[in-house]
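Extended Data, panel c. Modelled sequence:
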Amino acid sequence: MDPCFELVIWPEDKLPEEAADYKQCEICTQKSRVIWGEGNPKASILVILDNPEAREDKDGNEYVCGTRQTLQAVLHQVNLTADDIYLTYLLKCRPLRKYNKEEVRAF
């Protein structure tokens, strides 16, 4: 990785009001919080991941997970930034334990 390259915590997109109290799937009962998306919601590049990874360690210190590290490194290689991309998720909650992925995908 480029030694001049600095990993950053991207800004989170604001959660729509109607999604704040959503409780229709198994993950809602175990979520830590909802993350709607990250980066620039008006960007022309959209990346969709399965679910958010942790943004904080157990002590509450922010960090960039491995998936975001890889994504940011690739963006850096092609001279793009968080302003050029919007990252969102199929599941908007970070699961705290294992879940039935097939059941959630079918929902």
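The radius of gyration is 15 Å. This feature is highlighted in the accompanying rendering.
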